[in-house]
Amino acid sequence: MARRKQHWTTHLKGTPKKPGEMNKLETRYAKVLTARKLTGEILSWWYEPMRLRLAKGVSYLADFMVMTADRTLELHETKGYEADKARVKRLTAAEMFPFRFFKVTEPKRGRGFEIVEFGPSAQDEK
Prior knowledge:
The protein has helices at residues 24-38, 84-96; strands at 9-10, 16-17, 42-47, 51-55, 58-61, 64-68, 73-78, 100-105, 114-118. Strand 1 (9-10) and strand 2 (16-17) form a beta hairpin. It has a domain at 18-84 and 100-118. It has 2 helices and 9 strands; from the N terminus they run E-E-H-E-E-E-E-E-H-E-E. The chain is an alpha+beta fold.
């Protein structure tokens, strides 16, 4: 019986992350989304719900999909650090797919999130 390879990503500090497992930043943002759901601002949210194919062998996996109260689907990408390759992927996905895309950062840990829309439906991100 063939064994499947483990696909783990390694963060800057060398901590392995299994697919489907949230890192600390994603966990903090998930708490914000849960609070927004309780207030009725959003209807639901999902973690890493789907992979978007950008080209042969190239895909984009958003951190969160959010359904707003008016049933609009949004993709939220949490970022502590972003490599150029990841930036190109998310901007390409925003051009190709009919979702609203948001980049979520936490400028100062524990002091709230900055949420900026990017892509064709937003003012171009610099």
